[in-house]
Amino acid sequence: MAEPITDRDREQVRRLHAEGKSRNAIARAIGRSAATVSKIAREAGLTFTGGARVAAATEARRADAAARREQLADDALDGALGQVARTGGAESARDARDHATAARALTEVHARVAELARHSGTGSAGGSMLDKLADALLGPTGEDDREGE
User: Fold this and answer.
1) pLDDT score of 105
2) Cα separation of 107 and 138, whole Å?
């Protein structure tokens, strides 16, 4: 039969948890099983969510995703501007229409990515100027003016 949980066990778990130790590290330090440490922690309202390493890794992933979204938005807008420039020098009406269609699609990508960045709180200060350009080319996001298509 397992040893009963003591007040000393509870105190050690609280102290080591406050120091940021993992469940398994606490179990090794106090000579109890990980299940016993989990039970003590649960009773004390403590959780093991991965500690500082997980929080730092999560924040790094968020920052990386935000940077990639911003790069995608910039690349889409640059591509759209390039397509608009090609429209004027198109050899045929069909080519001009194709360039305009590509510009619109790229501008929509930019607008959607910028909207995602705004909702996730990772948009850049330059986004408002780019959003105005997208709105001027497409109309405000969320409106679909392609009736009958």
Assistant:
1) 94
2) 8
